[in-house]
Amino acid sequence: MAAVITIVGRPNVGKSTLFNTLTESRDALVAAVAGLTRDRQYGEIKLNDTTANLVDTGGMLGDEGVLTDLMDEQIMQAVEEADLLLFVVSAKEGLMPDDLRILERIRPFAKTTWLIVNKSESSEPEIALADFYQTGIKTMHAISTAHRQGIRELRDALAAYVTAHIEPLPKENEFGPPIAIIGRPNVGKSTLVNRLLGENRVVAYDLPGTTRDSIRLPLVWDDQKYTLIDTAGVRRRARVDEGIEKFSILKTIDAIKQSQVCVILLDATENITDQDMHLIGLAVHHAKPVVLVINKWDHLDESHKEKVKSKLDRKLQAFQWIPWVFTSALHGSGLRHLMERIELLLSRASMDFTANQLTNVLNEAYKAHQPPLVQGFSSQLKYAHSGGHHPLRIVIHGKRVDKLPDSYKRYLENAFRDAFDLRGIPIILQFKAGKNPFEQKTPKKSPFPSKRKSTK
Asked: What is the pTM of this model?
């Protein structure tokens, strides 16, 4: 798994501001899973040639200055997952008793900890740090998130630490295209993985270079090679126990990043949950081909199945382009359909399209439904060409394309998807406006004198 850097500290010391500064976005929230990560935010921090997961925890003290059970559980899990802790304090307030209490709470985890002295803009770094040497933390950084002082130095230090101490994610797939199996606990991930690996035609062993928190398992299905990325940590059938399976959003994010296809499991016997929707959103956010597996389907009667389909239709309005597969991992039904869908997604995601093919679809879509007028003018779409794969990008050139509403962009996206049978494949549309060659050019002065008559 990628390096995990966790920010901790008491309230109002600037943890969230530091999180947004390091992720370079105020919209850096990657996942907020209801009931599980209520007190944590997850983002990605780019550090030169590598990346790391950044976790922002809630304030470690409740309203009365005590650790609440829920906060303690959530924050301590984030501390346990961390490779590096950034313990944030305030230079303006100095070392507070609450800071020492928090430090006592995290020290038993024996994690590498850096002291981040925020709000240090009004004093020299040596003076800002002086009050905090008694903590015994060797690595300290004086910063000011409000004035962006010391941020570059902190980022450089983080980059050096991650490069030197953290095992990098595998860049090369050693067996076959990686397929991420993700989902909430108890939806059947372990059963599905073991059912796939339990077939006679499957070669099963742990690949070299396996990351710390996800298992990469080679699978051969109908002579095709794949790599299953199992976030449940399943190694042997005898060790499977879904009752104690631990859900980690960090494992899921890394599995999605490494994958070429995301298989998201839902439990047909339960209503689709906010966690399910967040997992779907994560896969879409990272622009990965997706297939939804409605598991435990054999447990339902026909009436119940129709109700489940109706509920899924309503909840998944924004993801109508994602295909469904109905399975029972326990009994092995639907697995062939799933593997056929995965193979189809892999082949479609790598398809090459000529500019002529894409432009023809664009022209037909434009003729069938033109974009609305903006200030009396209509956007004009001229031609399209491919912008790359994984994810699939289509570049559209025209006039006033910056005025296209989101609804029309979705219409174009669906037009391309329908034309080339790209169901389950995310499409990123990029729009480029043609520039006026005479724009911002000053007219040349005539070499001849003006012929206007004098008014004298």
From this structure: 0.68
